[in-house]
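Long-time lurker. I teach an intro course on protein structure, and each term I like to show students one example going from raw sequence to a predicted 3D structure in token notation. This year I'd like something fresh instead of my usual example. Would anyone be willing to generate the tokens for the chain below so I can use it in lecture? Attribution to the forum is fine with me.
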Amino acid sequence: METLLGQFSSEGPITVWKFCPLFKGVGWGMIFNVFVTNIYYIMFVAYSSYYMLVAFVNIGDQLPWEHCGGNSWSTAKCNADPYPDFTSMTLNSKTQILRSMMDRQCLERTLTRKNISTISSTDFDLLRTEFAACEKIYTSPEDEYWNRFVLGVHDSDGFNNMGTVVARNAVILFVVWLIVFYCCVRGIRSIVKDKMNMQLNFFSSKSVEL
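-- Reply from a regular --
Happy to contribute to a lecture. Here you go:
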């Protein structure tokens, strides 16, 4: 409602309530809400800007979060291959693939504990039910890039030890805040007008040279 009143009276969220000072607190509450929201929303803009910058730098090449090999942030659990579609495989093939996706030591311990002598090439259902806990948990390169490289979550032990500040993220956040501050001070219309004047001056100088 204060937005509609502000558009009608050309007033801010506080001064728009001067016709009824009792509701001035609504304006202050709106300012506080916007202030708190912008603090975490600007992080979305910063991370989006970072990914956009990396994508532009790697135009025509493979993006760093598309593969696992050769990266300092990837672990042994990183796997870029999709989960196999067992429904389109033969019984022998899907049993072998599922067995290769399981931890060998866990298989041996489970075989001993359950008194199972061996697993044949047709025991796919047995693997899925009795040895489900032995299946390795893989993570995608996108997940590891985000958590280990961008955020550095692996350096944190929780709230008691959140790790060091990632300098790259701090610089990007500072630049984004500068852009937002500049837009607030100058205004979007003023920035567009300055840009158009710069373009006109550029083409005018080029035409004079020709």
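Some talking points for your students: DSSP finds eight helices and no strands in the chain. The two ends are 56 Å apart (CA to CA).
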